[in-house]
């Protein structure tokens, strides 16, 4: 085995005019999360535990679109979703429609470990959370001033915003402008800047794990489910690799993006980075997304086909990098 490796992301599709201050805040958060993961891996914590630990940290910080600071639905509420997968046995857990669980990734872990199912949603997931005694909070805990402002903007524009991290002024400078919108399921989406969070880890025993968490789209329809909780789309881990995706959820679902990385490694015998490049190029059609991945050999890779992706990675040999563009 090639030693442990870890990668984190805070979303793909970045406003090219994102202020330097916001860029530095994002890099500091990613660095903090990487250091938490590195410390845990040096203490021989299993990959699945490290993934949960790091994603919980991302969910607890309002900077990105997960946990506290999640995007708001059209009704002004938060409906979060998350999934986690252990490559050792391909065990998995996922949740959707979460509105009062402080850390959705931990509830997904409990679905994996403590239920006979792989996926629970909405009231059933919330009831299971109460039974398991996880930390619950009022929905207002997740709502920030930025969220409220961006929901108002989205409603005024009669559109969906992938995330609230878009300046309240100068919308024509965003990653996808009004003059050249991207499309989601054939419908134009004027603003593109998703910021789902995720973590992938391989430990010293070569065990891979992955986790993804998000608040979804700003001004989304109540009940909408994206790729983040869908095993094989937003999250996948097996014997060969662990993958977490971010971006246009509908395109990621159509392309079963995370699973395809593992599939081309297995069936085409591609290396990790070549597999990531193949999937980003061949499986997204006209969609926009990015992903992070680790292999059981201790390799780390990423790819995206949009303006940028908030990301960071580290390996046991001392390599560490945090970037956006």
UniProtKB/TrEMBL annotation:
Domain of life (superkingdom): Eukaryota
Pfam families on file: Asparaginase_2
UniProt-listed SUPFAM superfamilies: N-terminal nucleophile aminohydrolases (Ntn hydrolases) (SSF56235)
Subunit details: Heterotetramer of two alpha and two beta chains arranged as a dimer of alpha/beta heterodimers.
Protein name, per record: Probable isoaspartyl peptidase/L-asparaginase 2
Protein species of origin: Solanum pennellii
Lineage of the species this protein comes from: Eukaryota, Viridiplantae, Streptophyta, Embryophyta, Tracheophyta
């Amino acid at each position: 085995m090639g030693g442990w490796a870890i990668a984190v992301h805070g979303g793909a599709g970045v406003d090219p005019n994102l202020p330097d201050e916001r860029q530095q805040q994002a890099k500091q958060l990613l660095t903090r999360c990487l250091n938490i993961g590195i410390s845990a891996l040096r203490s021989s914590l299993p990959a699945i535990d490290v993934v949960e630990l790091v994603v919980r940290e991302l969910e607890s910080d309002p900077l990105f679109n997960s946990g506290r600071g999640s995007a708001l639905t059209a009704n002004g509420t938060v409906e979060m979703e998350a999934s986690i997968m252990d490559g050792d046995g391909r065990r998995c857990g996922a949740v959707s429609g979460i509105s009062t669980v402080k850390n959705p990734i931990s509830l997904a872990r409990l679905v994996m470990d403590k239920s006979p199912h792989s996926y629970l949603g909405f009231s059933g997931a919330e009831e299971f959370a109460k039974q398991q005694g996880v930390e619950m909070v009022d929905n207002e805990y997740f709502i920030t001033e930025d969220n409220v402002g961006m929901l108002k903007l989205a409603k005024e524009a009669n559109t969906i915003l992938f995330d609230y991290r878009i300046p309240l002024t100068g919308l024509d400078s965003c990653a996808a402008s009004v003059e050249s919108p991207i499309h989601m399921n054939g419908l134009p989406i004027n603003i593109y800047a998703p910021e789902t969070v995720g973590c992938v880890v391989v430990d010293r025993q070569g065990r891979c794990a992955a986790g993804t968490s998000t608040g979804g789209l700003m001004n989304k329809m109540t009940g909408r489910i994206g790729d983040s909780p869908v095993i094989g789309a937003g999250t996948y881990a097996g014997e060969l690799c662990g993958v977490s995706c971010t971006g246009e959820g509908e395109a990621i679902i159509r392309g079963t993006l995370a699973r395809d990385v593992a599939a081309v490694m297995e069936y085409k015998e591609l290396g990790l980075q070549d597999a990531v490049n193949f999937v980003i190029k061949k499986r997204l059609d006209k969609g926009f997304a990015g992903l992070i991945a680790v292999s059981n050999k201790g390799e780390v890779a990423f790819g995206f086909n949009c303006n940028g992706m908030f990301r960071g990675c580290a390996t046991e040999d001392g390599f560490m990098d945090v970037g956006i563009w």
